[in-house]
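Q: What structure does this chain adopt?
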Amino acid sequence: MTRAENLALLREYTQSESLIKHMLAVEAAVRAYAKKFGADEELWATVGLLHDFDYERWPNPPDHPLQGSAILKERGYPDEVIYAIKSHADYLTDCPRVSQLDKTLYACDELCGFITACALVRPTRLEGLTAASVKKKLKNLTFAAAIKRDDVTRGAADLGIELDEHITFCIAAMQSIAADLGLTPPPA
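A:
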């Protein structure tokens, strides 16, 4: 499937611009890791882009991501894409994260959401955002309270990457598409 087809599918099922931007952020981070690991960038980017495409219609477990997985299967997406998307849901115990792709999606998902929250409260948005600043916000449990802190730390550990390095890497990936994410500094 092409990126244009993936975007069309995403927009068919998702109206929320903030959710779309979240999937774009995760796509950028997962794609950057694919490049770093020498993996198939388009396949990995597809996983990042579509991992939550069913969430708006079916937000309750296990409907998300099982409803989306059925749609992807019906539309001919590879099993590797479908499995990786299913594996990002901790409550699907029959889909443990085993591949590097599975672990990368999980590691990037909550973190990209948290980085977005951090950027939105800064006048310069993503510009100049550091791992130290993100880690400081992680300690404040009332800030972006819906983000599961354990998922952020477990994701980096499962990926085998030190948390500061992982945060810095994801920030850089998101900076590459900051305009698409609405995370560029406002005009002076």
